[in-house]
Amino acid sequence: MEEARHFIGNQWVATASHETIPVIDPSDGQVFAQLGRGNAADIDRAVQAARRAYEGPWGQASAADRGRVLYRLSMIIAAHQDELAHLEARDTGKPLKQAHTDAAGIARYFEFYAGAADKLHGETLPYQNGFTVLTIREPHGVTGHVVPWNYPLQIFGRSVGAALAAGNACVVKPAEDACLSILRIAELAAEAGLPEGALNIVTGYGYEAGAALARHPGIDHISFTGSPATGAAVVKMAADNHVPVTLELGGKSPQIVFADADFDAALPVLVSAIVQNAGQTCSAGSRVLIERSAYEPLLERLSEAFSALKVGPSKLDLDCGPLISAKQQQRVWDFLSDAQHDGIAMAAHGEVIAEAPEAGFYQAPTLLRDVPPAHRLAREEVFGPVLCAMPFDDEADALKLANGTDFGLVAGIWTRDGGRQMRIARKVRSGQVFINNYGAGGGVELPFGGVKHSGHGREKGFEALYGFTVLKTIAIKHG
Ligand code: NAD
C-alpha cells in the first residue's frame, strides 16, 4: 500500500495539500506510517467520482449483480483475515484476537449485505378502487460515511456494506487515529470488481476533511459514528443542504443484575463487556447495577476477575491493549482523578505488564464501587476500561438508575424471572436489550442504534437497508 494517498475512483491519488498526518502505534507510541491530510478539494474530487459511479455502472447494476460483487469482496476479505487483523491490531492497539474477530466481522457484514441486496423491495398498498399503488425503495445516491477509530473495520463494514448493497456510491472519511485497514479494504474492493468511484476513501482530520464531507452539497445521506458533540455538529452542517443523517453516538450502557441471576454465566460477560477494546466500545457495558442483597458477593467476584486482568501491547494478545492515543489516555485519567477527588472507592484494578513500552497509552481496567448516580462517572461515557458499580433495591429503582443518563444504546438484564425480564426489557430506554447475555456476539443481523443522545437511525441487519434508501410511492389510476 502506498502511503499518504487517498483512494478515489479505484486509484491511489495524491492529496491536494501534499501534507501528511503521522500514524502512531498505540502499543509503543511510535510513528509507523503517514496518512494524507485531505481537505475540501479531495472530498470534492471523491464526491464527483462517486456521482459518476452512481449515474454510471454502479447505479445501473442490477441488485443481483451488486450482491455478487459484495459477495466476492466478502470472500477476498476472509482470505486476507490474517493480514487485516495484524494491520488493525497495530493501528488501534487492540489485542490480536480481537482484531481477528473484527476482520472476520467485516467479511460477515459484506456476506450478509451481499445476500440482502436483491431482497430489498417495496409493497403494494390498498387504495381507492381503480388505483394500484406501489412503493419502491431507491438508493439515496452518494452517501457520506464518517467512521471512528475504535472499530475501523467493523464500523466501516456495517455502514458501507449496507449502503453499497442498497445501490449507493460511497465517500468515506475514516478517523485520523486509525484507518489503515479501511484503505486496504478499498483496494480489495477494486479487486472484487467494484466499479470505479463506487467506494472512495479520503483520509484527514475531522474538522477539515470530515467537515468538508458533512457540508458538501453533492452528498445525499450521511452516516456518522462518534461523539455526541461531533454528531450534533455534523447534523447542523448537513442541515444546510437538507441531508438526512444517521447518528451512532455511544452510550453509558447498564447491565442490571438481580440476585437470582446465574452469576457464573454473568461474570465473564460483565467483565468482557467493559474490557473488550479497552472499553473503547460505544456499546460497552460501563455500568453494573446490582440488587442490594447480591451487591457485596458479586462485587467480590468482579474484583477478583479485575485483579487478574493483564494489559500490554497488541501483539502479546492479553486481556486488554492500550488506549488509542495520548488524548484518550488523558481523558480516562481525568475521569479517574475526579473519582479519587470525590472519594469514589476503587474496588479493584488489573495490571499493566512490566514489558509494556513506557511510551504506549496503557490504562489498567478499573472497577469503581458505590458510584453516586449523579456523578459524571455514572453519567458520561469514559470510553476506557472503567466499570462503575451501583446497588439498587427493587425493579423500579433499577429502572430509574438504568434510564438515568442522557444515553440509551444497549442494556443487559440478568435474572431467571421471565416476567421481570420482559417488564424491564419493555421499560428500559435503549435501542437493544440483551437478556442473560450481552452484545450477542456482534450480531450482524441485529438492528443496532440508540435513543436519546445515543443517536438515531438503525445500522446492521436488514433495517439498515431502509436507512440507506428512500421510499417512492407510485399511484396508478387505471379505472
Ligand atoms: P469524534 O466524534 O471527534 O470523531 C469521530 C469521527 O468524526 C472521526 O472520523 C473524526 O475525524 C470525525 N470528525 C471529528 N470532527 C469532525 C467534524 N467537525 N466534522 C466531521 N467529522 C468530524 O470522536 P473522538 O474525538 O475521536 O473521540 C472523542 C469521544 O467520542 C470518545 O472519548 C468517545 O466518548 C466518543 N466516541 C464514540 C465512538 C462510538 O463508537 N460511538 C467512537 C469514537 C469516539
UniProtKB/TrEMBL annotation:
EC number: 1.2.1.3
Active site: 248
Superkingdom assignment: Bacteria
Record InterPro entries: Ald_DH/histidinol_DH, Ald_DH_C, Ald_DH_CS_CYS, Ald_DH_CS_GLU, Ald_DH_N, Aldehyde_DH_dom
Chain ranges of the Aldehyde dehydrogenase domain: 12-474
Record keywords: Oxidoreductase
UniProt GO MF annotations: aldehyde dehydrogenase (NAD+) activity
Alphabetized PROSITE patterns for the sequence: ALDEHYDE_DEHYDR_CYS (PS00070), ALDEHYDE_DEHYDR_GLU (PS00687)
Family: Belongs to the aldehyde dehydrogenase family.
Name the UniProt record assigns to this protein: Aldehyde dehydrogenase (NAD+)
